[in-house]
């Protein structure tokens, strides 16, 4: 037996204290122990055990007095309170953004004379002179040319309006990019890749800060109003997470524990999607499927609560003026037929191809931006893209208006009251049918010209979105993707409809398309196309279908949506597994351990651990022979985040792991406050001080910062298991042993580098500390 | 350095083979290696790594020939095929069950003369003589008394009908309980507790077998038709899982891997709920929230697919005859008002109290059944309960009909065409309003008598359900719980409505309840009450609200449902954390490691591991000194499921872990097939055979069954971390070391016993091997 090699045999009471180790040192006067530095990754197990300690402390205290009991109840309820606050604030912000965007988008075209803060629609709704037929035209609303020259028609007025449209757009986007650059560089982009990374356990200080929140909200309004091809849905998730971070700081339960904070952030992501689309259930599933890393059941309930509160806050603000919760409310009156699955699946294929094209082209362009001169002039780039967008968008009525209005029109079924060009069908006067059941009719000239304009709009949107996403302004991808899909879908829908009308004797149309009956709904095709394109870019499936289901509110159309979403995912996956968010994570080198990647290589822990063959030996501390000076030298010479502690260098038997940050703080603290601790003092991690000659300086006991339960695997463990353990337990590092002897260490960075290497990517691209 | 203590330093190639260890021995001729015995628990990590091996093998083979490529594609698609099959079969079975139940429930009262296989509704629908007003009465449908005596009215006919009703009920339930006893004892109960346990990694052979499927389907029809206070929703989950298990056996990918099989079962649970309620999204969330243990994203998509296919199969069978997917389709026309939240929350409190009462009383009764003579007469018990149910149920029209019809009526809003007693309001002739907007009116005598009958039905349902759930027949809990809640809710709803009508000048009603306007929907109260009661019993939250949302199809009513569900959960949780399913798991002693239980005690791994103080030392094998005889003695003398392998007994350095089952099979196999292996042969686990005198018999190499990467924790690891690791990685056992020396072992059973001990429960109640 090699007993007594240094580890004192502990009595039961002592053992119990062992578990409380962490708590003891949290009570210590020196601050910041147990926190993380910027751009570091958190240790989920440690965070969880810290929270359990805190919880235990509160529970035991709560028996002492009434006041402590109330405090413990408040603590237990604080989770729900935070959710309520997040829901209220993110719902309010979403409402304010919607209202402001409405007003500013219309400001590019004209102004309301009766009250300049009214949008076009509000202006004409409040006017008494509007007739029901012509809601869009009222004397109070004047285009700029009309206001300035008194002349509403003619080429001159058109050019003036055109010019002012471009000017406003440039002004908005210039303001936005300047604000982002000066005040909050983190406010740019959609934020979802970064939030995914943060939720997986990475620290990016300031990314969810107050300034980011403020600037992102303001600039989001500006960029959306400027008419750029981007949406506000992704950034709303970022905004909601910023709100969550803000409220976390009110409760020490969340502000001091990075693990608990991430639970709140997951719920906030759900609230963000909930207000973006008015789809609370879809929001929760989006958070679960797309964003979150660690999603316990408790978070599921809380997310749902936050998503609901947010949705109802938004509804009481009522920015769309129709008491509807959802962004695109649609109601269809015709069922779909089995044969229609063919065009639906074709739309799915289109969506998948669009997803692949977009991801490849966008990533290539963003890489170019990062590596060439282009990246140095973000303001100029934004101005140029805005200018091009505005110049090209104005002449086409389908690109001039805001993208969400466009999608809304494309989704809509042609009712009897619809005045849109898309509904310009040739009426058959000898039929009188109820209002909500319009039979199929031949397309009129309006429809044909609309088709041309839509085709041009499609090409324009596809190209410009590739260059827009990734600029240094807040930009979401949901709306442009959906627009591309909706345009393609509507075109296909009208084509099928006209084919069915003109060839209703064809065998496939015979059963369901008798003349005079309603059989094809082009709006449904637009919706299916939108789902397919969104799916191709983001690779969402269930959450996508549920969001769409919440928009239509009927189970009827789940099958077409599902067919398109799944086809689109399969097609896109065939060309590359990564969604746009994951591609951007990779491009930026964030240390994100993807849950979906299956690790199938046959490597072992020993192939990945450091030190490698020919490397210098592992930097370790011994339990009772290292001096303070040795430790300080080790800290200075290396940049490892922690050091294993062994019984002795000869036996290499592992007893624990100590964090660099804690070690630095502890020694600094001891040197300041503890008399007799000098450079030659021995540092010891055992229970009892080692037997030293009397002449030696006072030793320094550091057992309290020692993690006595470091995670170990054997050198023969397959890497797939190691990856699984890192994912599921959220480890920061893991020690490798062989028959009880310490051989090396695997950090999360090593795992990520190894995975990158196995996928033939550059392992050094990963940003990490 | 203590190098060379036996572990040969492996070359890189060898290391690679290490990972393939498992694969090598799977290729071995002796079968059953890597499988589990009945009532054992699976090792998730091992299953996962086996699947990865299988996958790697197929991928590498697929490059060899076209045929192998096709095979690999088929393999990749088999998951979706299984889902499709599960959806089709479970949808079909659910449809058949619905049709059969409809017919047999009506058979208790009478028969269709034109075709005896028609249910009452079908009989009168096909009849031409029915008027629109009186759909329920048609000459073809005759009650038994009318048929037998020609006399439809009078006391004699009533008694005869009453008598025959009881007789049929007794016949059905006797048949059911006999079938269950004789052919498939596992077909009893709701099955959800067992499925939860199976999904968490336990093996119960036959629980999901073909016989169970067949008998459960048949007896489910019988017991539901017999009028007992039970539902078919829970058992449908079991039926769907049986289907899944059936189809798993078609694909070796699933039949040979217990981990993969559980992924399919999770999806099947979703399909089961999907067909039970017609709520596919709710089904997926139910599986996620309530049933599943390991639910990767891939399973989410597949569950959704299976749930959709099942729902659409059911819809095409169209058992309810109304093209509706959902069990209770409701449409309300009035919004709800803020003040109504007070009665909704009161219903939530009622639901929580009902949940607590039911769980406590039912568990007490089931415990009594287990421990007393009562359990020995299951047939008699079923007969007695059926008799009592039938005798008490017949006189009350609300308990005589099937429970789902009752719920449906309670949920319904009183339209103009409603002939129900519950809608017997006094009409105000001077008002003429459109059909779907009936204003509040004073209640007529019919409503008052209905209220009395409902109150009696409520008491009856509460009492009888406690005694029904847990008998040796298939029995679900959803429908009875919902019925209790719906009755209570409707009573409260009518009370509020009448109060609002008669006191519309009260300050709280003033704003929303003007006379002549419609302000309170009693049906909505019934729905909220049903959700609250179901929530109190099952502790579902999100899935419950989503199921209810899918029933109504409107986001409007989510807030009332949510308020009631959350209140009910809070109230019920205050009295005890366990849901009815978890209570039954505990009662039966299944080894289920609950994901929701927070382990907050400050114990360490060293307190839980075996051997305890004063126990004999841990049974270990040495790497190259144990003989075949030693191993056989060890296997005979102990009943452990596996043995750690150490370098030597002195150093106690761990090198691996070997499963008892594999060891037995390997030695048996070697003795039969390998010449020279005798009792005194040395068993070695190293790469190279130990140096032995020439006179010794041939040694036996067993490295291929050695798990070289056993999971270890240190003795100082807090138990909360250990519990977390067991949960997240699905371990079967974990070895405990201190500074590299093996100290003991913790199995899943030890963890469960320790948790039971900490919660002051009997640790020996856990059934386990």
TrEMBL record, chains A, B:
<dbReference type="Pfam" id="PF00654">
    <property type="entry name" value="Voltage_CLC"/>
</dbReference>
<feature type="transmembrane region" description="Helical">
    <location>
        <begin position="264"/>
        <end position="288"/>
    </location>
</feature>
<keyword id="KW-0813">Transport</keyword>
<keyword id="KW-0547">Nucleotide-binding</keyword>
<dbReference type="GO" id="GO:0008021">
    <property type="term" value="C:synaptic vesicle"/>
</dbReference>
<keyword id="KW-0812">Transmembrane</keyword>
<dbReference type="InterPro" id="IPR001807">
    <property type="entry name" value="ClC"/>
</dbReference>
<dbReference type="InterPro" id="IPR000644">
    <property type="entry name" value="CBS_dom"/>
</dbReference>
<dbReference type="GO" id="GO:0005886">
    <property type="term" value="C:plasma membrane"/>
</dbReference>
<dbReference type="GO" id="GO:0005769">
    <property type="term" value="C:early endosome"/>
</dbReference>
<feature type="domain" description="CBS">
    <location>
        <begin position="609"/>
        <end position="673"/>
    </location>
</feature>
<dbReference type="InterPro" id="IPR046342">
    <property type="entry name" value="CBS_dom_sf"/>
</dbReference>
<keyword id="KW-0050">Antiport</keyword>
<feature type="transmembrane region" description="Helical">
    <location>
        <begin position="236"/>
        <end position="252"/>
    </location>
</feature>
<feature type="transmembrane region" description="Helical">
    <location>
        <begin position="450"/>
        <end position="470"/>
    </location>
</feature>
<keyword id="KW-0067">ATP-binding</keyword>
<dbReference type="GO" id="GO:0005247">
    <property type="term" value="F:voltage-gated chloride channel activity"/>
</dbReference>
<dbReference type="GO" id="GO:0005794">
    <property type="term" value="C:Golgi apparatus"/>
</dbReference>
<feature type="domain" description="CBS">
    <location>
        <begin position="706"/>
        <end position="765"/>
    </location>
</feature>
<keyword id="KW-0967">Endosome</keyword>
<feature type="transmembrane region" description="Helical">
    <location>
        <begin position="477"/>
        <end position="496"/>
    </location>
</feature>
<dbReference type="InterPro" id="IPR002246">
    <property type="entry name" value="Cl_channel-4"/>
</dbReference>
<dbReference type="GO" id="GO:0010008">
    <property type="term" value="C:endosome membrane"/>
</dbReference>
<feature type="transmembrane region" description="Helical">
    <location>
        <begin position="162"/>
        <end position="184"/>
    </location>
</feature>
<keyword id="KW-1133">Transmembrane helix</keyword>
<feature type="transmembrane region" description="Helical">
    <location>
        <begin position="204"/>
        <end position="224"/>
    </location>
</feature>
<dbReference type="GO" id="GO:0015297">
    <property type="term" value="F:antiporter activity"/>
</dbReference>
<dbReference type="Pfam" id="PF00571">
    <property type="entry name" value="CBS"/>
</dbReference>
<protein>
    <recommendedName>
        <fullName>Chloride channel protein</fullName>
    </recommendedName>
</protein>
<feature type="transmembrane region" description="Helical">
    <location>
        <begin position="77"/>
        <end position="101"/>
    </location>
</feature>
<comment type="similarity">
    <text>Belongs to the chloride channel (TC 2.A.49) family.</text>
</comment>
<keyword id="KW-0472">Membrane</keyword>
<keyword id="KW-0406">Ion transport</keyword>
<feature type="transmembrane region" description="Helical">
    <location>
        <begin position="377"/>
        <end position="394"/>
    </location>
</feature>
<keyword id="KW-0677">Repeat</keyword>
<dbReference type="InterPro" id="IPR014743">
    <property type="entry name" value="Cl-channel_core"/>
</dbReference>
<dbReference type="GO" id="GO:0005524">
    <property type="term" value="F:ATP binding"/>
</dbReference>
<keyword id="KW-0129">CBS domain</keyword>
<feature type="transmembrane region" description="Helical">
    <location>
        <begin position="341"/>
        <end position="365"/>
    </location>
</feature>
<keyword id="KW-0868">Chloride</keyword>
<feature type="transmembrane region" description="Helical">
    <location>
        <begin position="524"/>
        <end position="549"/>
    </location>
</feature>
């Amino acid at each position: 037996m090699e007993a007594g090699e240094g580890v004192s045999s502990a009595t039961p009471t002592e053992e119990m204290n062992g578990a409380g180790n962490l708590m003891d040192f949290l009570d210590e006067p020196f601050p910041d122990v147990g926190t993380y530095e910027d751009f570091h990754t958190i240790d989920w197990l440690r965070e969880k055990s810290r929270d359990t300690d805190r919880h235990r402390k509160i529970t035991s205290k709560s028996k002492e007095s009434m006041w402590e009991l109330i405090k413990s109840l408040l603590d237990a309820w604080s989770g729900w309170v935070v959710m309520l606050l997040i829901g209220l604030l993110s719902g309010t912000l979403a409402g304010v953004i919607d209202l402001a965007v409405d007003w500013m988008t219309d400001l590019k075209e004209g102004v309301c004379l009766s009250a300049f803060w009214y949008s076009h629609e509000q202006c004409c709704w409040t006017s008494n002179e509007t007739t029901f037929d012509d809601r869009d035209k009222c004397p109070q609303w004047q285009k700029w040319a009309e206001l300035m020259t008194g002349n509403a028609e003619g080429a001159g007025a058109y050019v003036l309006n055109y010019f002012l449209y471009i000017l406003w757009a440039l002004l908005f986007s210039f303001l936005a990019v300047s604000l982002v650059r000066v005040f909050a560089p983190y406010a740019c982009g959609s934020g979802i890749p970064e939030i995914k990374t943060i939720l997986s356990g990475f620290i990016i200080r300031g990314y969810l800060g107050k300034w980011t929140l403020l600037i992102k909200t303001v600039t989001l309004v500006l960029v959306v109003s400027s008419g750029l091809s981007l949406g506000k849905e992704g950034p709303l998730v970022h905004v909601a997470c910023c709100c969550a971070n803000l409220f976390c700081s009110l409760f020490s339960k969340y502000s001091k524990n990075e693990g608990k904070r991430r639970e709140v952030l997951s719920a906030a992501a759900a609230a963000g999607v909930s207000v973006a689309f008015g789809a609370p259930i879809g929001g929760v599933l989006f958070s679960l499927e797309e964003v979150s890393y660690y999603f316990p059941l408790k978070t599921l309930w809380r997310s749902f609560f936050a998503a609901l509160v947010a949705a109802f806050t938004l509804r009481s603000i009522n920015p769309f003026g129709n008491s509807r919760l959802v962004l695109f409310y649609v109601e269809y009156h015709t069922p779909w037929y089995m044969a229609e699955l063919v065009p639906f699946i074709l739309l799915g294929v289109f969506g998948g191809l669009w997803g692949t094209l977009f991801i490849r082209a966008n990533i290539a362009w963003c890489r170019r931006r990062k590596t060439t001169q282009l990246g140095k002039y973000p303001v100029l780039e934004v101005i140029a893209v805005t200018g091009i967008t505005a110049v090209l968008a104005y002449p086409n009525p389908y690109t001039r208006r805001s993208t969400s209005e466009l999608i809304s029109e494309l989704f809509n079924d042609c009712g009897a009251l619809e005045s849109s060009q898309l509904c310009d069908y040739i009426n058959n006067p000898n039929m009188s049918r109820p209002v909500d059941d319009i039979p199929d009719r031949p397309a009129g000239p309006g429809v044909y010209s609309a088709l041309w304009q839509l085709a041009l709009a499609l090409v324009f949107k596809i190209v410009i979105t590739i260059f827009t996403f990734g600029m240094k302004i807040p930009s979401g991808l949901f709306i442009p993707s959906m627009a591309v899909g909706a345009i393609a879908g509507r075109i296909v829908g009208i084509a099928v409809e006209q084919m069915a009308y003109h060839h209703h004797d064809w065998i496939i149309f015979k059963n369901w398309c008798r003349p005079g009956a309603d059989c094809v709904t082009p709006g449904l095709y637009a919706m299916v196309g939108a789902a397919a394109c969104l799916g191709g870019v983001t690779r969402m499936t269930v959450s996508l279908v549920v969001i769409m289901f919440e928009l239509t509110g009927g189970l009827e159309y789940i099958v077409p949506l599902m067919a398109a979403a799944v086809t689109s995912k399969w097609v896109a996956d065939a060309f590359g597994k990564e969604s746009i968010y994951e591609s951007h994570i990779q491009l930026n080198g964030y240390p994100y351990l993807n849950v979906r990647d299956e690790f199938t290589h046959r490597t072992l822990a020993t192939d990945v651990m450091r030190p490698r063959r020919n490397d210098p030996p592992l930097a370790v501390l011994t339990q009772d022979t290292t001096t303070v000076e040795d430790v300080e030298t080790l800290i200075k010479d290396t940049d490892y985040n922690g050091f294993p502690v062994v019984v002795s260098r000869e036996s290499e038997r592992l007893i624990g792991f100590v964090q660099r940050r804690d070690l630095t703080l502890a020694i600094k603290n001891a040197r300041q406050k503890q008399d007799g601790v000098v450079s030659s003092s021995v540092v010891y991690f055992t229970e009892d001080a080692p037997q030293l000659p009397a002449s030696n300086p006072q030793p320094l006991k550091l057992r309290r910062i020692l993690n006595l339960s470091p995670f170990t695997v054997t050198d023969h463990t397959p890497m797939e298991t190691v990856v699984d353990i890192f994912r599921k337990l959220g480890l920061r590092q893991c020690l490798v042993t062989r028959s009880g002897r310490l051989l090396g260490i695997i950090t999360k960075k090593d795992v990520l580098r190894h995975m990158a290497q196995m996928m033939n990517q550059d392992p050094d691209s990963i940003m990490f500390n």
